[in-house]
Structure formats: C-alpha cells, structure tokens
Write a structure and sequence with these properties.
Oligomer: heterodimer
Distance between the termini of chain A: 20 Å
Structural class of chain B: mainly alpha
Order of helices and strands of chain A: HHEEHHHHHHHHHHHHHHHHH
Strand content of chain A: under 5%
Structural class of chain A: mainly alpha
Shape of chain B: elongated
Largest sheet of chain A: 2 strands, antiparallel
CATH topology of one domain in chain B: Helix Hairpins
C-alpha cells in the first residue's frame, strides 16, 4: 500500500538514477527506461483500480500523521492523471526508436525525461501544498534540462525564456503557500479544506487569487502563456509530445485540486474571473494557431486554446463542470501528444515542419492522412470521437448554468480550430509537394512511430465510441472531491 | 521586528524586480535570484516572528515554552536549496547563451521566436534552428559548423 502510493515518484526516480549510471551503455539505458516506464504503468493501473474502489491510496511520511507530516494521497483524480503520465511516457519512449525528429539522442536525455516524470508524478500524488510546490520545481528543472540539452542556439534561447517566465510563476506560488500557511497554519490538503471553510471571504479571495495566478502561469492561460509559444517548438518530437501532453495539464490539475477540492466552494467572484480568462485563452490561443504555418507552432497554440476549455470546466464550479474538465484533460493529453508525434512523422517524410514547403502526403501516404484525421477531428470535437464528449460535458453544463457568452465563444473557437486543422490537411496532405521531384524517402525507420500513433488513435476512438466508463469515472472523481 | 522584515522584503523585491526587468541577461538572472530571496523572506515570516528559542521541550518539562515556529524554517530551507540549484543552472545557461549568441541584450535574443516582418505571413524558420533531417545532404556540414 505504502509502496504503491509512492510509486509515481519512486519508480521514475530509480529509473532516472539507473539511466544516469548507464549513460555510456545506450542499449542497456534504453532497456532500463522501458522497464521503468512499464513498471510505472503497472503501478498506475493498480492505483486507478484502488482509487475507483473508493479507497484512495495514502501514506504519511516520517512517522508524523496528517496534518503534521507530509502526506501522499492518490484519489480518483490523481490516479487517472498518473495513469495518463505513464501512458504518455511509454508512448514517448517507444517513439524514440523511430527516426522521426528524435536525433540527437544525448546520453542524458532519458534520465532527464524520467527526472521530469518524478516531478509530474509527485505533483499528482501529494496532499501537501508546499510539497506540491517542490514537485513543480523538480518538474521545472527536468524540463529545463530537456530544453538545453540539444545545445542549439534557439534551444538555449527557448530555455532562458521558459526559465525566466516560469520562475515568476514559481515565486508567486511560494508567496501563495506562505500566505496560506500564515493565515490558516495548515499545509495538508485535508486540514486546509477544514480551515478554508472558516476563512473570511475577503481573505479567501486574496489568497486564492495569488494561488490561481501562479497555477495559471504554469497552465499557460491568457495572458500568461508567452513562455509556451516561445519555447515548445524547439524540442525534439518525443520530448515535445511528452511536455505538450503533460506539463500545462499539471497546472490544470493543480487548479482543479485547489478550486474544486481543497478550497471548495471557491468565491463566486474568482469563478467569474476564471470563466472570462478561459474564454480569452480559447480565443487568443486559436488565433495564434490560425496565424502560424509551422506545424509545431500551430499545435503549440492549440494547447493554449484547449487549456481554455479545461479552465471553463473548472470555472463552472459545479461537480459536473469539474467532471467535464477532467474528462477534457484526459482526452486532450492523448490527442495532443498524438498530433505532435504525427507532425514529426510528416517532417520525416516531407523534410520540413513548415506547411509552405511540404505537401503531397495524401497520395504518397494515404494511411498517414487517415491517422491524422482521427486526433485532428477529435481535437475539434467531431462526434463520435473523444473530443465531442469532452466538449459536450463542459458546454452542456455551461448552458445549464446560463453562461451563454462563454458557450458561444467556445463554439466559435471550435470552428476556428477546424479552420487551422483544415490548413494542415490542405497544405500537408492535399496540395502537391512544392518540389515536383519529391518522393517520400525509402530509408525511414517509422515502425515504432506508426505503432505509437495508431495506438493513441485507437484509445481516442475507444473513448469516443464508448465514453460511458470514463464519464462514470470522472463523475465519481468530481463527486468525491471537496468532501473528505 | 516584523516591520524591519517587511521593509527588507519590500526593498529586496523592489531591487529584484528592477534588475529582472533589465535587458541585460546577467542582470535579469541576478534580479530573479534576488526576487527569490525576497520571496523566501515572505515564506519565512509566514510563521510570525516571535521567540528566538528553538522548538525543543526543555529537559524536565513536559510543555513546550515560547519558541519559534519550526515549520516555516523547514519550508524556507527547502526553498533556498531549490532556488540555489536554479540560480546555478541559470548562470551556466546565461554564460553559454551569451557566448553562442555573442550578445547579452534580451532584445537580440529572437532565435526561437524571430520578430515577424509581415503581419499575415510568419517567417519560415532558419535552417540552422531546425532539427537535422536524415535525408538532408547539407545537414552534416551545418551541424559541424554549429559545433565549432
């Protein structure tokens, strides 16, 4: 029990250490990382099983019981996030076997990826506010390593922007943690929930505003998302898919945890503000995507736009809204990572990420077109794919609560998402390649890439065709929050 | 005492923010680390400034007398260690960046996100800022140049 609850931290930590020691033996290092990530996957499945039976795994460290010691507690919400983390890690590591934008593979790349997963796993496992900050920092240093390790000038530049802007978020988080501790004298989530009920409304608004601001920077919300388009596109594909899938979503998770669970019910004024931030995030994200021609930049701006939908779910402040946000997060992580990986395959086949320089894939690789269509339409929200149910859950609740403006913005943004996806489809697949002599290269090694992307597309399809198990799970997760 | 700390925090944050907003890379990083120190002081004072005695029950007694709150001390120690690691990383990063970019002006650092020249047509990325394609014949020479 104790071993299982610390597994999201312990397994990647052991793997990172072993992979660092084995940095001179590439084959062994890769084998160890696979064993590590598959162990994490097995632990995550066990955690989900445990959490969905209504007995969240928990442990308090150092012989100090909660609320005095640091506590780990993985309920339904945390367990599904850990499962998605392990799934994305597996996909990313498998994809590295291919040659689609996976070079150069620095000997410390795998340790850094596992190092980042330590932070992600810890953030999902912990039930302590200061500990949450620590895991955000662990994640930050891992990601900075991933950015800097390529050593290209634009990557170093991106590392600096990522560092400077994310550090502001981190510092705000420390201020918020200090303020929360000063007012309530608690850091443990369960104890904070009790203490928060007695807070004066004015004090609660000030505390939560700082806390929200910190997590909104981490989540990439409007107008605090500048670090994301400045840096993401410089990463190699497997690391990019992993970061795009997980990092901003840790911010979303933290917001959901704070507003939907620890400080539930949050002040109405903050929810209103968050709703407008969500609408602006959706709109400005998708406008950025409509402007760009580089595949990675388009998809990067789509992350921001989609973050808006998750924020909207949280901003509704009801159980159904929280459930919708969680469903959206789960669907989005899988679809987004898949799109970045497919973009890398397009790069391998056509030679560029820039849509103006490529084309002709519909004739050359029709199956890749089909594969692209599944996550692309899912991101837009076509039935019967997973994105349709995600948007339905969030927007139905928004309409029921009478938030017409936000709903209309969300629907317009869906149309604009369709526009930018059509741009990718028309330019990369439909139009002939600008170089008439172009033929797809024959010496590719795309087998692992196909396996990963088809696998992720099948998950999207499965959720889309049979959403009920996931809907039941997220609803149960939302219902069990805020009522410890 | 609490006023002295409050004024110290105020000055530290002011100096840190002023430096962090500088165009000079090194100043920016130093400013962020000073800002982090100010934030650490906030965290430290979250436990209130009271007695300077450690939170240890004196031998022979069963009740803890007046003493300092140990929790914020533990928190701030953690934050200092993490901040130190980040400062070390950022200093190495900035040195490398200044050497490679041959400039320490943040306005010149537009390698990852080039300044748009046209309001509708974004620029194509420079080939040296792209990953090396396996089928690109000029790739090996370019990456060689970059390393030298």
């Amino acid at each position: 029990m104790m071993a299982l609850v610390v597994s999201p931290v312990l397994v990647p930590m052991l793997t990172a250490v072993l992979a660092t020691l084995l940095r001179r033996h590439a084959a062994l290092q890769r084998a160890v990382s696979f064993v590590g990530i598959l162990t994490l996957l097995a632990c995550a499945i066990a955690l989900v099983a445990l959490a969905s039976s209504g007995h969240p795994a928990e442990a308090a460290f150092g012989g100090w019981n909660a609320p005095f010691g640091i506590q780990f507690r993985i309920d339904r919400l945390g367990a599904v996030m850990v499962l998605l983390t392990a799934l994305m890690g597996t996909a990313s590591l498998l994809f590295m076997w291919s040659d689609a934008d996976t070079k150069p593979q620095h000997p410390l790349l795998l340790p850094l990826i596992h190092g980042m997963l330590i932070g992600v796993g810890g953030a999902f496992a912990t039930a302590d506010l200061f500990n949450l900050y620590v895991w955000f920092e662990v994640m930050l240093i891992g990601v900075l390593g991933l950015f800097a390790i390529g050593g290209r000038l634009d990557q170093l530049d991106a590392t600096f922007k990522y560092f400077a802007l994310n550090l502001v978020g981190t510092l705000l988080l420390v201020v918020a943690v200090g303020a929360v501790y000063a007012v309530t004298g608690q850091l443990n989530f369960g104890a904070l929930h009790q203490a928060a009920l007695a807070l004066k409304p004015g004090v609660a608004i000030v505390l939560l505003t700082v806390l929200m601001l910190a997590f909104l920077i981490k989540a990439g919300a409007f107008p605090l998302f500048a670090w994301l388009p400045a840096s993401y596109h410089t990463l190699p594909a497997p690391a990019l898919a992993l970061c795009a899938g997980l990092l901003t979503k840790v911010g979303i998770y933290a917001l959901l945890r704070m507003l939907g669970d620890v400080f539930a019910p949050p002040p109405e004024m903050l929810l209103q503000a968050l709703g407008w931030i969500a609408a602006a995030t959706m709109l400005f994200g998708v406008l950025g995507a409509a402007y760009h021609w580089d595949l990675r930049r388009i998809l990067g701006f789509h992350i921001i736009s989609q973050i808006g939908y998750m924020l909207l779910g949280i901003a509704l402040g009801t159980e159904a809204g929280d459930a919708g946000a969680l469903f959206y997060t789960a669907h989005h992580i899988i679809v987004k990572a898949n799109l970045f990986l497919i973009a890398a395959m397009i790069w391998r086949l056509t030679g560029s990420y820039d849509l103006r320089r490529i084309g002709g894939l519909a004739n050359a690789r029709p199956l890749l077109g089909l594969l692209f269509i599944v996550p692309a339409l899912s991101l837009i929200g076509f039935p019967p794919l997973s994105g349709f149910w995600a948007k339905l859950l969030v927007l139905r609740e928004a309409i029921e609560l009478g938030h017409v403006t936000w709903t209309v913005v969300a629907l317009i943004v869906s149309l604009l998402t369709l526009y930018s996806m059509m741009k990718i489809w028309l330019e990369a697949f439909w139009k002939p390649h600008p170089d008439p002599a172009w033929t797809p290269p024959r010496d590719t090694r795309l087998g692992p890439a196909w396996a990963v992307t088809i696998g992720l597309a099948l998950i999207t399809l499965t959720i889309g065709l049979d959403p009920q198990p996931l809907i039941a799970y997220v609803t149960a997760a939302a219902l069990s929050m805020g009522a410890r | 005492m609490i006023w002295a700390i409050a004024i110290t925090i105020w000055i530290t944050v002011l100096v840190g923010a002023r430096l962090a907003l500088s165009r000079d890379l090194l100043r920016c990083v130093l400013g962020l680390s000073i800002l982090a120190s100010g934030v650490n002081l906030v965290l430290f004072s979250s436990g209130r400034v009271s007695s300077p005695l450690p939170a240890v029950v004196i031998a022979g007694e069963s009740v803890l007398g007046p003493s300092a709150n140990p929790v914020p001390q533990a928190l701030v120690l953690t934050a200092i260690v993490i901040g130190f690691a980040l400062v070390c990383f950022s200093l190495v990063l900035v040195l490398r960046l200044i050497r490679e970019a041959e400039s320490d002006d943040t306005l010149d650092l537009r390698f990852a996100e080039p300044k748009p020249r046209h309001s509708l047509e974004p620029m194509a990325t420079d080939a040296a800022m792209e990953p090396v394609h396996p089928n690109d014949p000029g790739a090996s020479t370019r990456s060689g140049e970059r390393r030298s």
